[in-house]
Protein backbone atom coordinates (compact mmCIF):
# COMPACT_ATOMS: atom_id res chain seq x y z
CA UNK A 1 0.00 0.00 0.00
CA UNK A 2 1.16 3.50 -0.81
CA UNK A 3 2.61 5.16 2.31
CA UNK A 4 1.51 8.59 1.19
CA UNK A 5 -2.04 9.85 0.90
CA UNK A 6 -3.14 12.83 -1.18
CA UNK A 7 -5.89 14.90 0.42
CA UNK A 8 -7.82 17.98 -0.62
CA UNK A 9 -7.42 20.75 1.96
CA UNK A 10 -11.13 20.46 2.78
CA UNK A 11 -10.68 16.73 3.48
CA UNK A 12 -7.70 17.41 5.69
CA UNK A 13 -9.67 20.04 7.58
CA UNK A 14 -12.59 17.63 8.18
CA UNK A 15 -10.17 14.93 9.31
CA UNK A 16 -8.59 17.33 11.82
CA UNK A 17 -11.96 18.71 12.96
CA UNK A 18 -13.46 15.28 13.62
CA UNK A 19 -10.35 14.21 15.54
CA UNK A 20 -10.35 17.33 17.68
CA UNK A 21 -14.06 16.87 18.46
CA UNK A 22 -13.28 13.22 19.21
CA UNK A 23 -10.73 14.18 21.85
CA UNK A 24 -13.04 16.59 23.65
CA UNK A 25 -12.66 20.03 22.04
CA UNK A 26 -15.70 22.24 21.87
CA UNK A 27 -16.85 22.91 18.32
CA UNK A 28 -15.46 26.46 18.45
CA UNK A 29 -12.05 25.35 19.69
CA UNK A 30 -11.94 22.40 17.28
CA UNK A 31 -12.95 24.50 14.28
CA UNK A 32 -10.35 27.20 14.99
CA UNK A 33 -7.57 24.62 15.50
CA UNK A 34 -8.59 22.64 12.42
CA UNK A 35 -8.40 25.82 10.35
CA UNK A 36 -4.93 26.65 11.73
CA UNK A 37 -3.63 23.13 11.13
CA UNK A 38 -5.04 23.07 7.59
CA UNK A 39 -3.52 26.43 6.72
CA UNK A 40 -0.15 25.29 8.04
CA UNK A 41 -0.27 22.05 6.04
CA UNK A 42 -1.43 23.94 2.96
CA UNK A 43 1.46 26.38 3.32
CA UNK A 44 3.94 23.51 3.51
CA UNK A 45 4.63 24.05 7.23
CA UNK A 46 4.27 20.39 8.12
CA UNK A 47 5.61 20.86 11.64
CA UNK A 48 2.39 22.78 12.43
CA UNK A 49 0.10 20.78 10.16
CA UNK A 50 -1.80 17.52 10.59
CA UNK A 51 1.15 16.13 12.51
CA UNK A 52 0.12 18.37 15.42
CA UNK A 53 -3.38 16.90 15.81
CA UNK A 54 -2.30 13.83 17.83
CA UNK A 55 -0.19 16.24 19.84
CA UNK A 56 -3.23 18.40 20.65
CA UNK A 57 -4.91 15.19 21.82
CA UNK A 58 -2.01 14.48 24.13
CA UNK A 59 -1.99 18.04 25.46
CA UNK A 60 -5.70 17.73 26.27
CA UNK A 61 -5.11 14.44 28.03
CA UNK A 62 -1.97 15.27 29.94
CA UNK A 63 -1.95 19.00 30.71
CA UNK A 64 -4.11 21.73 32.21
CA UNK A 65 -5.44 22.68 28.76
CA UNK A 66 -9.19 23.32 28.72
CA UNK A 67 -10.50 22.06 25.37
CA UNK A 68 -13.83 23.84 25.65
CA UNK A 69 -12.52 27.17 27.00
CA UNK A 70 -14.21 30.39 25.88
CA UNK A 71 -11.85 33.33 25.45
CA UNK A 72 -12.82 36.55 27.24
CA UNK A 73 -11.96 40.00 25.88
CA UNK A 74 -11.18 43.05 28.09
CA UNK A 75 -10.05 46.58 27.35
CA UNK A 76 -6.92 47.57 29.26
CA UNK A 77 -6.48 50.96 27.53
CA UNK A 78 -7.93 52.43 24.32
CA UNK A 79 -5.05 50.90 22.40
CA UNK A 80 -4.53 47.74 24.44
CA UNK A 81 -6.88 44.79 24.73
CA UNK A 82 -6.51 41.55 26.61
CA UNK A 83 -7.86 38.16 25.74
CA UNK A 84 -7.94 35.61 28.53
CA UNK A 85 -7.88 32.31 26.71
CA UNK A 86 -9.08 30.40 29.79
CA UNK A 87 -6.32 27.79 29.20
CA UNK A 88 -7.75 26.93 25.82
CA UNK A 89 -5.83 26.94 22.55
CA UNK A 90 -4.59 30.04 20.77
CA UNK A 91 -6.52 29.80 17.45
CA UNK A 92 -9.93 30.50 19.03
CA UNK A 93 -8.46 33.31 21.14
CA UNK A 94 -7.17 34.83 17.88
CA UNK A 95 -10.61 34.60 16.29
CA UNK A 96 -12.04 36.55 19.20
CA UNK A 97 -9.24 39.08 19.63
CA UNK A 98 -7.88 39.93 16.18
CA UNK A 99 -10.96 41.69 14.76
CA UNK A 100 -11.02 43.96 17.82
CA UNK A 101 -7.25 44.55 17.51
CA UNK A 102 -7.81 45.67 13.90
CA UNK A 103 -10.54 48.12 14.99
CA UNK A 104 -8.33 49.55 17.73
CA UNK A 105 -5.30 49.92 15.44
CA UNK A 106 -7.45 51.87 12.98
CA UNK A 107 -8.81 54.18 15.65
CA UNK A 108 -5.54 54.61 17.62
CA UNK A 109 -2.91 54.23 14.88
CA UNK A 110 -1.25 51.51 16.96
CA UNK A 111 -2.79 48.86 19.19
CA UNK A 112 -1.70 45.77 21.07
CA UNK A 113 -3.27 42.49 22.02
CA UNK A 114 -2.16 40.76 25.21
CA UNK A 115 -3.17 37.12 24.95
CA UNK A 116 -3.03 35.31 28.28
CA UNK A 117 -3.57 31.77 29.45
CA UNK A 118 -3.36 30.00 26.12
CA UNK A 119 -1.62 26.95 24.79
CA UNK A 120 0.11 28.19 21.63
CA UNK A 121 1.18 25.22 19.57
CA UNK A 122 1.11 26.83 16.17
CA UNK A 123 2.90 29.18 13.83
CA UNK A 124 2.64 32.95 14.28
CA UNK A 125 2.05 34.04 10.72
CA UNK A 126 -1.70 33.35 10.96
CA UNK A 127 -2.21 36.27 13.28
CA UNK A 128 0.19 38.52 11.39
CA UNK A 129 -1.44 37.69 8.06
CA UNK A 130 -4.85 38.47 9.59
CA UNK A 131 -3.47 41.99 10.19
CA UNK A 132 -1.77 42.48 6.82
CA UNK A 133 -4.97 41.38 5.07
CA UNK A 134 -6.59 44.43 6.72
CA UNK A 135 -3.81 46.72 5.47
CA UNK A 136 -2.01 46.81 8.84
CA UNK A 137 1.60 46.16 9.77
CA UNK A 138 1.81 43.37 12.34
CA UNK A 139 4.21 41.94 14.88
CA UNK A 140 3.66 38.88 17.05
CA UNK A 141 5.70 37.19 19.77
CA UNK A 142 5.15 34.07 21.84
CA UNK A 143 7.09 32.04 24.36
CA UNK A 144 7.14 28.25 24.55
CA UNK A 145 8.99 26.12 27.12
CA UNK A 146 12.71 26.08 27.94
CA UNK A 147 14.73 24.66 25.09
CA UNK A 148 17.59 27.11 24.46
CA UNK A 149 20.27 28.34 26.85
CA UNK A 150 21.01 32.03 27.44
CA UNK A 151 24.09 33.38 25.62
CA UNK A 152 27.15 31.71 27.11
CA UNK A 153 25.01 29.32 29.16
CA UNK A 154 24.57 25.58 28.97
CA UNK A 155 21.13 24.83 30.41
CA UNK A 156 17.87 25.42 28.50
CA UNK A 157 16.11 28.57 29.74
CA UNK A 158 14.34 30.37 26.89
CA UNK A 159 11.71 28.85 24.68
CA UNK A 160 12.18 28.60 20.95
CA UNK A 161 10.25 31.89 21.12
CA UNK A 162 9.15 32.82 17.62
CA UNK A 163 8.48 36.32 16.37
CA UNK A 164 6.74 37.33 13.18
CA UNK A 165 6.52 40.55 11.20
CA UNK A 166 4.18 41.40 8.36
CA UNK A 167 3.99 44.26 5.86
CA UNK A 168 0.82 44.61 3.74
CA UNK A 169 1.02 45.21 -0.02
CA UNK A 170 -1.62 46.53 -2.35
CA UNK A 171 -0.58 44.11 -5.10
CA UNK A 172 0.75 40.69 -4.29
CA UNK A 173 0.91 38.85 -1.02
CA UNK A 174 2.20 40.55 2.13
CA UNK A 175 5.84 40.28 3.10
CA UNK A 176 5.86 38.14 6.24
CA UNK A 177 8.65 36.51 8.12
CA UNK A 178 7.94 34.18 10.99
CA UNK A 179 10.90 32.65 12.72
CA UNK A 180 11.88 30.87 15.89
CA UNK A 181 14.67 32.32 18.05
CA UNK A 182 16.30 28.92 17.82
CA UNK A 183 18.13 27.65 14.75
CA UNK A 184 15.09 25.42 14.09
CA UNK A 185 11.58 25.01 15.42
CA UNK A 186 11.10 22.11 17.87
CA UNK A 187 8.61 20.49 15.52
CA UNK A 188 11.29 20.25 12.82
CA UNK A 189 13.42 18.11 15.16
CA UNK A 190 10.41 15.91 15.92
CA UNK A 191 9.72 15.52 12.19
CA UNK A 192 13.35 14.54 11.54
CA UNK A 193 13.06 12.00 14.35
CA UNK A 194 9.83 10.61 12.92
CA UNK A 195 11.44 10.33 9.48
CA UNK A 196 14.67 8.80 10.89
CA UNK A 197 16.75 11.63 9.40
CA UNK A 198 19.80 13.34 10.95
CA UNK A 199 19.55 17.04 11.82
CA UNK A 200 21.51 19.73 10.00
CA UNK A 201 24.62 20.81 11.93
CA UNK A 202 24.24 23.78 14.25
CA UNK A 203 20.70 23.05 15.42
CA UNK A 204 21.41 21.42 18.77
CA UNK A 205 23.72 20.02 21.40
CA UNK A 206 23.21 16.75 23.28
CA UNK A 207 22.86 16.38 27.07
CA UNK A 208 26.68 16.42 27.30
CA UNK A 209 26.81 19.86 25.62
CA UNK A 210 28.51 18.49 22.49
CA UNK A 211 27.08 19.35 19.04
CA UNK A 212 24.78 16.64 17.71
CA UNK A 213 22.82 15.76 14.57
CA UNK A 214 20.89 12.98 16.35
CA UNK A 215 17.26 14.10 16.94
CA UNK A 216 16.91 12.06 20.16
CA UNK A 217 20.13 13.55 21.58
CA UNK A 218 18.97 17.02 20.56
CA UNK A 219 15.59 16.57 22.25
CA UNK A 220 17.32 15.46 25.44
CA UNK A 221 19.91 18.24 25.24
CA UNK A 222 19.40 21.84 24.13
CA UNK A 223 18.51 23.68 20.93
CA UNK A 224 20.84 26.44 19.84
CA UNK A 225 19.68 30.00 19.23
CA UNK A 226 20.05 31.29 15.67
CA UNK A 227 23.01 33.62 15.26
CA UNK A 228 24.51 32.88 18.68
CA UNK A 229 24.02 35.63 21.26
CA UNK A 230 21.89 37.70 18.86
CA UNK A 231 19.20 35.04 18.65
CA UNK A 232 19.45 34.59 22.42
CA UNK A 233 18.71 38.31 22.88
CA UNK A 234 15.63 38.03 20.64
CA UNK A 235 14.49 35.08 22.78
CA UNK A 236 15.05 37.23 25.88
CA UNK A 237 12.95 40.07 24.40
CA UNK A 238 10.14 37.64 23.56
CA UNK A 239 10.18 36.31 27.16
CA UNK A 240 9.69 39.86 28.44
CA UNK A 241 6.98 40.88 25.92
CA UNK A 242 4.90 37.70 26.03
CA UNK A 243 5.67 37.00 29.71
CA UNK A 244 6.42 39.79 32.19
CA UNK A 245 4.79 42.60 30.16
CA UNK A 246 1.38 40.96 29.93
CA UNK A 247 1.45 39.12 33.24
CA UNK A 248 1.97 35.65 31.86
CA UNK A 249 4.61 32.95 32.31
CA UNK A 250 8.22 32.80 31.17
CA UNK A 251 9.16 29.69 29.22
CA UNK A 252 10.89 28.17 32.25
CA UNK A 253 7.72 28.73 34.29
CA UNK A 254 5.62 27.08 31.57
CA UNK A 255 8.09 24.19 31.63
CA UNK A 256 7.54 23.83 35.38
CA UNK A 257 3.80 23.52 34.70
CA UNK A 258 4.46 20.78 32.13
CA UNK A 259 4.40 18.00 34.71
CA UNK A 260 3.81 15.24 32.18
CA UNK A 261 6.83 16.28 30.11
CA UNK A 262 4.86 16.80 26.92
CA UNK A 263 6.85 19.91 26.02
CA UNK A 264 4.07 22.42 26.03
CA UNK A 265 2.62 24.57 28.78
CA UNK A 266 0.33 27.52 29.20
CA UNK A 267 1.68 30.93 28.23
CA UNK A 268 1.06 34.25 26.55
CA UNK A 269 1.39 36.01 23.24
CA UNK A 270 1.83 39.69 22.43
CA UNK A 271 0.59 41.09 19.12
CA UNK A 272 1.09 44.64 17.85
CA UNK A 273 -0.82 46.19 14.95
CA UNK A 274 0.06 49.49 13.26
CA UNK A 275 -2.00 51.43 10.78
CA UNK A 276 0.72 52.48 8.31
CA UNK A 277 -1.24 55.46 7.03
CA UNK A 278 -1.27 56.89 10.58
CA UNK A 279 2.53 56.80 10.92
CA UNK A 280 3.38 59.66 8.55
CA UNK A 281 2.39 63.25 7.91
CA UNK A 282 4.40 64.51 4.94
CA UNK A 283 3.89 61.63 2.54
CA UNK A 284 0.73 59.91 1.40
CA UNK A 285 0.04 56.25 2.19
CA UNK A 286 0.43 55.58 -1.57
CA UNK A 287 3.95 57.07 -1.49
CA UNK A 288 4.71 55.04 1.60
CA UNK A 289 3.60 51.81 -0.08
CA UNK A 290 5.54 52.66 -3.26
CA UNK A 291 8.62 53.36 -1.15
CA UNK A 292 8.39 49.89 0.42
CA UNK A 293 7.98 48.37 -3.04
CA UNK A 294 11.29 49.97 -4.11
CA UNK A 295 13.01 48.00 -1.36
CA UNK A 296 11.26 44.75 -2.30
CA UNK A 297 12.19 45.29 -5.94
CA UNK A 298 15.85 45.79 -5.01
CA UNK A 299 15.77 42.49 -3.12
CA UNK A 300 14.27 40.71 -6.14
CA UNK A 301 16.65 42.46 -8.57
CA UNK A 302 19.47 40.64 -6.82
CA UNK A 303 18.41 37.59 -8.82
CA UNK A 304 19.33 35.08 -6.13
CA UNK A 305 17.29 36.59 -3.30
CA UNK A 306 13.59 36.19 -2.52
CA UNK A 307 11.10 37.79 -0.18
CA UNK A 308 10.28 35.98 3.06
CA UNK A 309 6.92 34.24 2.79
CA UNK A 310 7.32 33.40 -0.90
CA UNK A 311 7.94 29.69 -0.30
CA UNK A 312 4.73 29.55 1.71
CA UNK A 313 2.67 31.35 -0.92
CA UNK A 314 3.95 28.97 -3.60
CA UNK A 315 3.10 25.97 -1.43
CA UNK A 316 -0.34 27.50 -0.78
CA UNK A 317 -1.08 27.93 -4.49
CA UNK A 318 0.03 24.34 -5.16
CA UNK A 319 -1.95 22.78 -2.34
CA UNK A 320 -5.11 24.69 -3.23
CA UNK A 321 -4.87 23.19 -6.71
CA UNK A 322 -3.47 19.74 -6.01
CA UNK A 323 -4.17 19.06 -2.34
CA UNK A 324 -1.43 17.90 0.01
CA UNK A 325 0.44 14.69 0.65
CA UNK A 326 0.38 13.28 4.15
CA UNK A 327 1.86 10.05 5.51
CA UNK A 328 -0.88 7.38 5.53
CA UNK A 329 0.12 6.33 9.05
CA UNK A 330 -0.44 9.87 10.30
CA UNK A 331 -3.84 10.12 8.61
CA UNK A 332 -4.83 6.79 10.22
CA UNK A 333 -3.65 8.00 13.61
CA UNK A 334 -5.79 11.13 13.27
CA UNK A 335 -8.78 9.13 12.03
CA UNK A 336 -8.53 6.88 15.09
CA UNK A 337 -8.82 9.96 17.30
CA UNK A 338 -12.04 10.89 15.54
CA UNK A 339 -13.44 7.51 16.51
CA UNK A 340 -12.71 8.40 20.11
CA UNK A 341 -9.64 6.19 20.46
CA UNK A 342 -7.51 8.69 22.33
CA UNK A 343 -3.78 8.45 21.72
CA UNK A 344 -0.74 10.56 20.97
P1 LIG B 1 12.20 28.93 9.02
O1 LIG B 1 13.61 28.98 9.46
O2 LIG B 1 11.78 27.82 8.13
O3 LIG B 1 11.79 30.29 8.29
C1 LIG B 1 11.85 31.50 9.00
C2 LIG B 1 11.42 32.64 8.11
O4 LIG B 1 12.47 32.94 7.19
C3 LIG B 1 10.19 32.34 7.26
O5 LIG B 1 9.36 33.46 7.26
C4 LIG B 1 10.78 32.05 5.90
O6 LIG B 1 9.90 32.36 4.81
C5 LIG B 1 11.96 32.97 5.87
N1 LIG B 1 13.00 32.49 4.97
C6 LIG B 1 13.53 31.26 4.92
N2 LIG B 1 14.46 31.20 3.95
C7 LIG B 1 14.49 32.42 3.36
C8 LIG B 1 15.24 32.98 2.31
N3 LIG B 1 16.14 32.26 1.64
N4 LIG B 1 15.00 34.26 1.97
C9 LIG B 1 14.08 35.00 2.62
N5 LIG B 1 13.35 34.52 3.65
C10 LIG B 1 13.55 33.24 4.02
O7 LIG B 1 11.21 28.94 10.31
P2 LIG B 1 11.51 28.47 11.80
O8 LIG B 1 11.95 27.06 11.76
O9 LIG B 1 12.35 29.45 12.51
O10 LIG B 1 10.03 28.54 12.42
C11 LIG B 1 9.04 27.71 11.89
C12 LIG B 1 7.69 28.00 12.50
O11 LIG B 1 7.62 27.51 13.81
C13 LIG B 1 7.27 29.47 12.57
O12 LIG B 1 6.03 29.56 11.92
C14 LIG B 1 7.13 29.74 14.05
O13 LIG B 1 6.08 30.66 14.39
C15 LIG B 1 6.82 28.38 14.60
N6 LIG B 1 7.18 28.23 16.01
C16 LIG B 1 6.18 28.18 16.94
C17 LIG B 1 6.47 28.04 18.28
C18 LIG B 1 5.40 28.05 19.30
O14 LIG B 1 5.68 27.77 20.46
N7 LIG B 1 4.17 28.35 19.00
C19 LIG B 1 7.85 27.90 18.74
C20 LIG B 1 8.83 28.01 17.67
C21 LIG B 1 8.49 28.15 16.36
P3 LIG B 1 9.24 31.15 3.96
O15 LIG B 1 8.14 30.63 4.83
O16 LIG B 1 8.77 31.79 2.71
O17 LIG B 1 10.33 30.15 3.72
Written description of the protein model:
By secondary structure, the chain is an alpha+beta fold. The protein has 12 helices and 12 strands. The protein has helices at 9-22, 27-42, 53-62, 90-108, 125-132, 186-195, 215-220, 229-244, 251-257, 285-301, 310-322, 328-338; strands spanning 4-7, 72-77, 80-89, 110-119, 137-142, 163-167, 175-179, 204-205, 211-212, 222-223, 267-274, 324-327. It has a 7-stranded mixed sheet, sandwiched between helices. Strand 6 (163-167) and strand 7 (175-179) form a beta hairpin. Helix 2 (27-42) crosses helix 4. The longest helix has 19 residues, at 90-108. The chain starts with a strand and ends in a 6-residue tail after the last helix. The mean pLDDT is 95. The structure holds NADPH dihydro-nicotinamide-adenine-dinucleotide phosphate (NDP).
Descriptive labels:
12 helices; 43% helix; alpha+beta; single chain; 344 residues; 7-stranded mixed β-sheet; binds NADPH dihydro-nicotinamide-adenine-dinucleotide phosphate
Low-confidence stretches at least 5 residues in length (pLDDT < 50)? none
Average per-residue pLDDT, rounded, comes to 95
Please identify the oligomeric state.
Answer: single chain
Distance between the termini: 23 Å
With helices defined by DSSP (H or I, 4 residues minimum), what is the helix count? 12
Named once each, the bound ligands are: NADPH dihydro-nicotinamide-adenine-dinucleotide phosphate
- What Rg is obtained from the alpha carbons, in whole angstroms? 20 Å
Shape: globular
The helix-and-strand class reads alpha+beta
Q: How many beta-strand runs?
A: 12
- Biggest sheet, open or closed, and with what strands and sense? 7 strands, mixed
Q: Tell me the fraction of residues in β-strands, as a range.
A: 15-25%
Helical fraction equals 40-55%
What order do the SSEs take from the amino end to the carboxyl end, as H and E? Answer: EHHHEEHEHEEEHEEHEHHEHHEH
* Widest sheet: strand ordering: 2-3-4-11-5-6-7
